[in-house]
Amino acid sequence: MAENVGHEVLAGVRELLPTLRERAQETEDARVVSADSIKALEGTGFFRLLQPAAFGGYEADPVTFYAAVRLIASACGSTGWVSSVLGVHPWHLGLFTPQAQQDVWGSDQSTRMSSSYAPTGKAVTVDGGHTVGGRWSFSSGCDHATWVLLGQIVTDQENRPIDFRTFLLPRSDYAIEDVWDTVGLRGTGSNDIVVSDVFVPEHRSLSFIDVTKLVVPGQELNHGALFRLPYGSVFPYGITAPIIGMATGAYEAHVAYTRERVRVAYAGQKAAQDPHAQVRVAEAAAEVDSAWLALERNMAELMDHARAREEIPIGLRLRVRRDQVRGTAASIRAVDRLFENSGGRALKTGTPIQRFWRDAHAGRVHAINDPERALTMYGGAEFGLPVPADAMF
Q1: Do 9 and 60 touch, CB atoms closer than 8 A?
Q2: Which CATH entry fits the domain spanning 113-211: 3.40.190.10, 2.40.110.10, 2.60.40.290, 3.40.640.10?
Q3: Residue 157 burial (10 A CB sphere; 0-12, 13-18, 19+)
Q4: The model scores a pTM over 0.90
Q5: Quick one: 229-382 is in which CATH superfamily?
Q6: Which of 47, 110, 206, 225 has the fewest CB within 10 Å, making it most exposed?
């Protein structure tokens, strides 16, 4: 049944692509995805793909979710980015206590969450929970959410670190400060979250120690294989999938443009007849394909282990992170090749190729895409060295 629903969601997303493509410049100019676009995506069922069935979700195969993200991002990079981030949060909430899930979805199963996981605030353990405060940046899509997930190192009364947790706060507990003004992903509305020392009850926080061990309180309610997957696989690919989508959109726009382009400087030769241009487009296509095929293979293997209730091998978890950062890099190489091959007219404001180029490079600077940490973890493990205790994989 989930497979059929997934096909229906993908079909609904495809129908929206022309509209999202038409709104891409408007989204960039507004610095936020429109409420109409979010509502239309909600109507396809997209935001329920990774949501627990206990709260009206589809618990779809992750590849279906990433395929939908890729489609959306191929029409508008900012909309794809926001959709992916907001769309992966229902899965993350599914790892929390059943009470936390009830708090969010009990009265409205379409409730959305934004996030900011970098620990830039403070959290102190108190009776019954924690006191949380500070400023968190880059909360993409926060204007379309009424809850937020905030990552933070927990300290004791002497300010000594004792845990890393994700805290779940309702809209009444935080303010949004509009600071987002960038050269890429301009339409994501990735603004700051400001919290003034609020109490977060114990049931609305989740230890990353438990998450890394793949033993979380949400499994008491959510028994499906989806909720036995590593955070360090599901979330990072939620960042890479839209970048693959941006590269896909850049490819489609470039091919359509190049078929009709005439190179005046080369005696009116059609650009499509240039063998060098043909080589470049072939290289770009291969880069995008390699990134996507690795994602499909890795998620299929993860789900096979999860469905069989088998322990997921450390080597597989490390390979996923290896291929995830490499997938981002391959997509960036593809976009660069396409941009280089598009000529000076591609520089004009409003053209798709320059927007995809800027958006993809903006997505690349997300910390989860830094290749060195992921590749070092993989290489070290291959040489028999221990994986760092604070590694996300």
Answers
A1: yes
A2: 2.40.110.10
A3: exposed
A4: yes
A5: Butyryl-CoA Dehydrogenase, subunit A, domain 3 (1.20.140.10)
A6: 110
